[in-house]
Specification:
The chain is an alpha/beta fold and about 220 residues long. Helices cover about 30% and strands about 15% of the residues. It contains 7 helices and 9 strands, in the order E-H-E-H-H-E-E-H-E-E-H-H-E-E-E-H. Strands 3-2-1-4-5-9-8 form a 7-stranded mixed β-sheet, sandwiched between helices. Strands 6-7 form a two-stranded parallel sheet. Helix 1 crosses helix 2 and helix 1 packs parallel to helix 7. The longest helix has 13 residues. Pfam families: DJ-1_PfpI.
């Protein structure tokens, strides 16, 4: 069982002058669910190398058992420091694909042709695809083999407009993930703000927010078993 986890390479939070990137918990919780299940994990990003960490997710109050375990693990930290460039990975070498969130993917992975190609190859070959929080932004340009949007007619979730408003970034993000999924024909649903919520439709797993990181990973593993 081999899982490709794709992280953002984008570190600027719009024009605010602040930093963004991937959210640590959304990497760490799935990473440990996969690794503890015996999966081989490869980390990749558009540029390769060390991806940018959203500094808010590295703050002491944002730490969890999973993030502390990740940061204390030499193997995990070495993999994070040396993510493989997307140009060097093929979906044919993996059994599943997973995207952690953080705001970074809204700017790069949502438009990255290599990422889109990985998603479309996974879809065409029946391999599970998972994404959590802002991670479902990566589905924006993805199409099924018949040319329809990948999410069209499928049950999906992601970071909600109300959650985006709660964190004060509605006017900063380049697009609303919720509105994008709806606009592409997805059957979007959500739970209360910041509560765990995961939807599985066929071989597509989406989680609403960082609290959904571990359950989304578990749902993906269920598809692989």
């Amino acid at each position: 069982m081999k899982i490709l986890m794709v992280l953002t390479s984008h570190d600027r939070l719009g024009e605010t002058g602040e930093k963004t990137g991937f959210w640590l918990e959304e990497l760490a919780a799935p990473y440990w669910r996969f690794r503890d299940a015996g999966a081989e994990i490869v980390l990749a990003s558009p540029r390769g190398g060390q991806p940018p960490l959203d500094p808010r997710s590295g703050a002491p109050e944002a730490q969890t058992e999973d993030t502390r375990r990740f940061q204390a693990d030499a193997r995990a930290m070495a993999a994070l420091a040396a993510t493989r460039p997307l140009a060097e990975v093929s979906m044919d070498d993996f059994d599943a694909l997973f995207y952690p969130g953080g705001h970074g993917p809204l700017w790069d992975l949502a438009e990255d042709a290599r990422s889109v190609a990985l998603i479309e190859r996974a879809e065409a070959t029946g391999k599970p695809i998972g994404a959590v929080c802002h991670g479902p932004a990566v589905l924006r340009r993805a199409r099924r083999p018949d040319g329809a949007p990948l999410v069209q007619g499928r049950q999906v979730t992601a970071f909600s407009d109300s959650e985006e408003a709660a964190v004060g970034l509605t006017a900063v993000v380049p697009f609303s993930v919720e509105a994008m999924l709806r606009g592409n024909g997805g059957r979007y649903s959500k739970a209360a703000d910041f509560q765990p919520y995961v939807v599985t439709d066929g071989r597509l797993v989406t989680g609403q927010n960082l609290a959904s990181s571990a359950p989304a990973a578990e749902a993906l593993l269920a598809l692989l078993r």
